[in-house]
Design a protein that fits this description.
Blueprint lengths: L22 H6 L14 H13 L5 E2 L4 H6 L3 E4 L3 H6 L1 E2 L3 E2 L5 H4 L9 E4 L4 H12 L5 E4 L2 H16 L5 H4 E2 L1
Parallel strand pairs: 1-6, 2-4, 2-5, 5-6
Antiparallel strand pairs: 3-7
């Protein structure tokens, strides 16, 4: 969680020398890199880079709370999860173009209408948005949080309102 104006991190925990809680710190934070135990860019660095893309206008997102509206409006939604993930559960009316097949299937993606991307956690859809933007697509929008967040949100709301979980309406199992 971050504040757009101050660029301060509001909802992360970090401990370390020189950490004053800004997006710039997250992006450039030096963490102990050991190929056996982690990647060259830690998830903390990736989070900082993702927030920077949002702040710079390089990444357009819609909150997961808007998914119901998108589904009901027949928005063009691409699930970038692998085929087995898509078969297990997916948004009603969504199309499946797995990240692993994206480069060979870009011609299937319209550049004339808004295209919403999602996946189980939001990480792959974020990566696909970046890939498509770098290939000239100006109409791609990430659904932040995506499938797991939607399940959690709808379950909580539905328990509070004592009504049917909307993900049973939005998802095909």
């Amino acid at each position: 969680m971050f504040d757009k104006q101050s660029k301060k991190v509001l909802g992360a925990q970090a401990v370390g020398k020189g950490m004053d809680g800004t997006i710039e710190n997250l992006k450039n934070l030096e963490l102990a890199y050991s190929p056996m135990h982690g990647t060259a860019k830690d998830v903390v660095n990736v989070a900082g880079l993702a927030v920077e893309n949002i702040l710079n206008g390089d990444l357009e997102q819609v909150p997961v709370s808007k998914v119901r509206e998108l589904v009901e409006a027949d928005a063009y939604i691409i699930d970038v999860g692998e085929a087995n993930e898509y078969e297990a559960e997916h948004l009603k009316g969504s199309h499946n173009i797995p990240l692993s097949e994206l480069r060979n299937r870009m011609d299937e993606i319209s550049q004339d209408i808004p295209v919403y991307l999602h996946c189980r956690t939001g990480q792959c859809s974020y990566n696909v948005v970046r890939i498509l933007k770098n290939n000239g697509f100006g109409n791609v929008i990430n659904i932040s949080g995506s499938y797991l967040s939607l399940q959690n949100i709808t379950s909580i709301k539905c328990q509070a309102l004592c009504r049917q979980n909307i993900y049973r309406v939005l998802f095909i199992f």
